[in-house]
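EI: anyone free to look at a 327-residue chain?
SC: sure, send it
EI:
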Amino acid sequence: MSKHIRIGGRQSQLAVIQSELVKHLIEEKFPDITCTVFALQTFGDQQQSKPLYSFGGKALWTKELEDLLYDEDEHRRLDIIVHSLKDMPTTLPEGFELGGITKRLDPTDCLVMPQGSPHKTLEELPAGSVVGTSSVRRSAQLKRKYPQLHFESIRGNLHTRLRKLDDPQNVYKCIILASAGMKRLGLEHRITNTFDNSVMYHAVGQGALGIEIRAQDKAMKEILDAVCDTNTTACCVAERQLMRSLEGGCSVPIGVESRYDESTGHLHLGGIVVSVDGKQAVEMSQDLVVKDIMSDSTECGRLLAEKMISNGAREILEEINFDRIDQ
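SC: here you go
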């Protein structure tokens, strides 16, 4: 077993915190192993001016990092890559695999108002108010509930988005963010409200970290099996299979919610597909008793996808033309 592990991740402050978390989990469990974190820029990090749906999918965050897993130079080669699981493609390229999933922090989305705002909820905002989000999943679900609001893209890391929000000259009356990222950065105090699935289903894998390894790397898999989380794995495997079966990427309006009870083996998976304008939606759920985490969780996601497809989910996804989206 390797005594030194090279951990790669993106170079944003949040990504570095996430990589350091995995470093801590490994070193705490295996005191004889040391880890080094390398923070690297990806193409997705360089594209801060365009909405995510306009220039590609999840590989934007992963391709450069994946290349380093097989780098010929041992001084550059990575052993594992830490991703926000929601940014990981549900199908990885040949030669790579999802080695483990860490314990989920908080999968919800949250509402953040500008400092000094008198408003606490979306209901309180005047008609025509601008909501900042680069996620079609979020804007589609919110258009369904709040058709009187207007949605515009906002990019940048969390601190950049908060600065834009707090600027008195900005157009945004609020922004929508992932609760987990805010909490990992110590920004809980800026969260005005969180959304449950009566308003917004969260993204597949949101709040969890996915650790990518070389395929068939038994040494790394053994280490990750010891530090990753069974409950989160059951939920996220089901969520990722739902998305894979629906053939959805990170920018399409697929939302999920899931619960797993380890004592009974009961897994609940809920999902929603919403048209970009929020006017059409397929919302369903699937329950299954899990005996084998990987195969049964995968089956739960597949069964829910079948039900949703038979009720029109695929037609909604196929009608999306990102070139014509009016945020």
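EI: The CA atoms of residues 10 and 139 lie 26 Å apart.
SC: 👍
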